[in-house]
Amino acid sequence: MPKKSKDSYHHGDLRQALIDAAIVLLRERGINDLSLREVAKRAGVSHTAPYRHFNDKHALLCAIAAVGFKRLADAMQQCIAQDPQNPLKQLQASGLAYVRLAVQYPDITHLMFGGALGYENLPADLIEVSDAAFGGLLQIIDNGKQAGLYQDEDTMSLALVVWSSVHGLSMLISAGKLQDHVKNQDDVDCMAELVTRFLLSGIKSDKLGAPE
Amino acid sequence: MPKKSKDSYHHGDLRQALIDAAIVLLRERGINDLSLREVAKRAGVSHTAPYRHFNDKHALLCAIAAVGFKRLADAMQQCIAQDPQNPLKQLQASGLAYVRLAVQYPDITHLMFGGALGYENLPADLIEVSDAAFGGLLQIIDNGKQAGLYQDEDTMSLALVVWSSVHGLSMLISAGKLQDHVKNQDDVDCMAELVTRFLLSGIKSDKLGAPE
DNA sequence: ACCTGAACACCGTTCAAGT
DNA sequence: ACCTGAACACCGTTCAAGT
């Protein structure tokens, strides 16, 4: 029987195996001590094999960041699907999901938003999945806007303000800057609720009553 | 004439010269291509000389981050000093200053808040100057609270919400994630104003009128 | 005290060679 | 097509040695 096209040679999918090994290593050692040679060793191949699947170390790091953006984009869509008729709940759920992902995967989060990948020359597929994540948030805001939930400001401005607030909380927690005030999962959820609540009462149309 | 104590040997202050060279190199090459050996070469000393002043590369990076936090702390104090009787203006000015510093020094900002330094084992002087920066913001919030500017929420919660929003905007801009919407200094200022405005109308006491 | 050069283990990347 | 081992230039860090 002839071998299947993709199930060739070693694992069948060395590219994915390298990404998986790199994510584990990133969590174990941090971004500064992640070496391509060690990733290859973990995946069981020679230290030059990764170059068959990635142009260089930067490309592998970009692939990890893409995994993070994919998780974020999926979470946004799930928030919409869970309460299709309730844009307010969509917003609250998306803020919570954003912060939880950042806390769960701090290293990937910093890879996604820190300066480690540089500010340009990012691969097209990374840009694409990053735009998809922001697009989900835009959709949530637009849902609320059409329901008359927000002040008369354009959707993009509203989305940028919401994104900034939730993103800032996520980065501060995942960087350990709020260690004294946010110690466990309950504190994380509580802070996310607090930020979302203040944000809502700020951007919410004056014509509507209290959120509950 | 005998040499002055600190003006010894090469520069008089090799420690500072190394920090300065490292900051330049950081901006030129990015965090991933900053090498201790190149920093030493730029400062005109052998590649082992830095170890007289820093335990390791991590310690030098921490010193750079400390410079960034010092700038931030100073900016907060300046915002207070500029309008001692106007807590609202203090808040607006501090948000603007925060974002501007992040845009001006994106690499140092990511060093301060990204995961490159790890999440623990940070030197005491870095923690200290970092706390000073946040302390300035706390003071600004407390000033406004005593003036009846904000809702009846404890100062720490208010400060964390404000910090998150402004921090998020700063990180998104300095990471280039808003390139399509924030292209120049005017856009930066405009976005900072937008975030601060929404934030204020959210946390502002209902008993007061419009901010102007 | 402060700096140096040699040394060690490791890294990212290239390339001719193997199957 | 996919993988390998040798090679190159570079890195962080240590250490005995110089003034």
Description of the molecule:
The structure is a homodimer of 212-residue chains. Chain A is mostly helical and 212 residues long. Chain A has helices at residues 14-29, 36-43, 57-82, 87-104, 106-113, 124-146, 155-174, 185-203. In chain A, α1 crosses α3. The longest helix of chain A is centred in the N-terminal third of the chain and has 26 residues, at 57-82. Chain A starts with 13 loop residues before the first helix and ends in a 9-residue tail after the last helix. The model of chain A is unreliable at 1-9 and 207-212 (pLDDT under 50). Chain A binds a DNA duplex (19 and 19 nucleotides) through residues 8-10, 14, 35-38, 45-49, 51-52, 56-57.
Name given to the CATH architecture of the largest domain in chain A: Orthogonal Bundle
Strand content of chain A: under 5%
Q: Give me the strand/helix succession of chain A.
A: HHHHHHHH
Query: What is the tally of beta strands of chain A?
Result: 0
Distance N terminus to C terminus of chain A? 64 Å
Largest sheet of chain A: none
Shape of chain A: elongated
Number of domains of chain A: 2
User: How big is the Rg of chain A?
Assistant: 20 Å
Summarize the structure.
The structure is a homodimer of 212-residue chains. With 212 residues, the first copy, chain A, is mostly helical.
Detail the topology: elements first, then pairings.
The structure is a homodimer of 212-residue chains.
Chain A: H1 14-29, H2 36-43, H3 57-82, H4 87-104, H5 106-113, H6 124-146, H7 155-174, H8 185-203
Chain A binds a DNA duplex (19 and 19 nucleotides) through helix 2.
